[in-house]
Amino acid sequence: MYIHGRNPIIEAFKSGTTVAKVFIRFGTQGHVVEEIKRYAREHGVPVTQLDKQKFDRLGAPREAQGIVALIEEITPLSLEELLAIRHEQDPPFLLAVDNVTDPRNLGAILRSAECAGVHGVILPQRDSSPITDVVVKTSAGATAHLPIARVGNLHQALLQIKEADIWVAGLDADGDTDLLGFDGYRPLCIVVGSEGKGLRPLIRKSCDILLRIPMWGKVDSLNASVAAALALYEVRRKRM
Predict the structure, then answer these.
(1) CATH 3.30.1330.30 fits 2-71, yes or no
(2) pLDDT of residue 59
């Protein structure tokens, strides 16, 4: 898989992701580019400079910033492997993403999750964006650090999470519990739904609690990635 953009490539090197090759468009310069070259030398990764025509054949978008890396496909964990991850003095803190098919929305959600210290993310195999180069780019490299599990049935996965004594809390505009008054220190899995539709009915029923984000303006809904960021940071704030 190709990833593009300077910061995602640096994060790939830092996280230990296997980088097979780096391609730089001729004339692309800067201290970040030099830093990537240094990482490549240290890891024995070949760096190839290409003219604009050949570089464009890689299919990189305009925001590639003149640099692309070929990396190994991200291998998702099983749910059991994800649940086995433990963090000292921090109760389990997971995120499940239901039916988010837009790669930029998913990338933004993963970026917020990694920054908020989420221990892992659960994604359904169907009705979810794959981890594409757009997701990696939008996540600013967060996918390189964030454990991600793919599950065939999100409903069943949430039931398994509950059996592990982890509360499942869905974000819902009509939720009966205000996010600001919620105890975020308990073992927890936040569930965020798709843009516009929110949580699917069966997923809503799987939740122990439905959280609403208070609104003070005229608009009564938030972008899915923004809602996820607010909820995750509110949980992290309460754990500090």
Answers:
(1) yes
(2) 82
